Amino acid sequence: MKVIEMKSSPEKPNPHNVSVRMLYDTEHAQAVHIELKPGETLKKHITPVDVFFYVLEGRGVVEIGDEQEEVSRDMLIESPAKVPHRLMNPAGDGIFRVLVVKAPRQTEQTRLL
């Protein structure tokens, strides 16, 4: 059995300049922990595979294509491959933590818009 504590996984440099930690990375899938402080946002981007977001803590906004939805803890959001998307923590006073799962594991680069 392999157990990974989120805080023991190093933060990964990224073009969004937010806290990103790779928790699971195999040839079949990836799971990433993202933490957005108030006012932080991911840049809009396109992922070449299906993704789902599971909100672990806080409130934020998810934008997929032309749709935006406020989301909160224990919500799961599907994001189909090749559709522009981003996560935002607009102005609240709390942390917005999300588990991002990509399946299958992407072999092409994510494209920033």
Brief overview:
This protein is mostly beta strands. The protein has strands spanning 19-25, 30-36, 45-46, 51-57, 59-64, 67-72, 76-79, 85-88, 96-102, 111-112.
Describe the structure.
This protein is mainly β. The protein is built from no helices and ten strands. The strands form three sheets. The protein has a five-stranded antiparallel sheet, with no helix packed on it. A three-stranded antiparallel sheet has the order 6-5-8, with no helix packed on it. Strand 1 and strand 2 form a beta hairpin. The radius of gyration is 13 Å and the shape is globular.
Count of separate DSSP helical elements: 0
Cα distance spanning the termini: 39 Å
Count the beta strands: 10
How are the strands of the biggest sheet laid out side by side? 1-2-9-4-7
Rough shape? globular
Residue share in helix? under 10%
Radius of gyration: 13 Å
